[in-house]
């Protein structure tokens, strides 16, 4: 099992690893079924295995971890920006499509209120919730929210999500060893964060 992760870990220095991760993260704003978070965790776990993190030695591949984090965060923000721009230019047809969805309509209202109050915690929470990123990015564009209000929170959300996902894979390999068990526990923790984010987003209107 360790040899398998070492084989994958040797590939983390290859540019295509970052290209696959970046493309998956960028596109999952449109296709939430893409396992971008799982890919980030697996890459971080493999990088930890290749760096000797699990053996207690000083990591020699830390730049790979940093590059993976920056790649995932940048792709996340770019995906948000593309969705935002497309929705902003969608016109009446997109407005009618959103009006037919109670979920999108409610998300638009909550997002508008959050941004109007100068806060964007909803944008950060939505990055962890299943499909939440799609709803918020498209909603911000469709309601013509200012990019100056939305994009800084999108950047914070993308960076927070990337750091959390990479840390799960990297430290999971340190604590549990570079095994599939470590990957499974890390993925479960990512899904747990998504479930918590979904709960907080649904609970917020009731508190208001």
From TrEMBL:
Cellular localisation: Cell membrane
Topology of the protein relative to the lipid bilayer: Multi-pass membrane protein
Highest rank taxon of the organism: Bacteria
Transferase is among the record's keywords: no
Protein name: VTT domain-containing protein
Domain VTT: 56-170
Family the entry assigns: Belongs to the DedA family.
Sorted UniProt keywords: Cell membrane, Membrane, Transmembrane, Transmembrane helix
Pfam families named among the record's database cross-references: VTT_dom (PF09335)
Segments passing through the bilayer: 12-31, 38-59, 65-87, 150-173, 179-201
InterPro entries: DedA-like (IPR032818), VTT_dom (IPR032816)
Stretches assigned to coiled coil: none
UniProt main location, coarse: membrane
């Amino acid at each position: 099992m360790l040899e398998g992760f070492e084989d994958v870990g040797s590939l983390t220095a290859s540019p295509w690893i970052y290209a696959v991760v970046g493309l998956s993260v960028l596109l999952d704003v449109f296709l939430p079924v893409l396992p971008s978070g799982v890919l980030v965790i697996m890459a971080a776990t493999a990088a930890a295995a290749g760096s000797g993190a699990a053996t207690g030695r000083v990591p020699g591949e830390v730049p790979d971890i940093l590059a993976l984090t920056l790649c995932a965060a940048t792709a996340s923000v770019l995906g948000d920006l593309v969705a935002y721009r497309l929705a902003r230019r969608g016109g009446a047809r997109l407005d009618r499509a959103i009006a037919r969805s109670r979920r999108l309509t409610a998300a638009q209202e909550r997002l508008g209120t959050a941004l109007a109050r100068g806060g964007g915690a909803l944008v950060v929470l939505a990055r962890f919730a299943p499909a939440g990123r799609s709803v918020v990015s498209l909603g911000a564009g469709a309601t013509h929210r200012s990019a100056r209000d939305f994009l800084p929170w999108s950047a914070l959300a993308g960076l927070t999500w990337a750091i959390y996902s990479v840390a799960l894979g990297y430290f999971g390999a340190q604590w549990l060893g570079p095994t599939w068990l470590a990957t499974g526990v890390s993925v479960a923790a990512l899904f747990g964060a998504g479930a918590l984010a979904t709960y907080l987003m649904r609970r917020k209107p009731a508190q208001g």
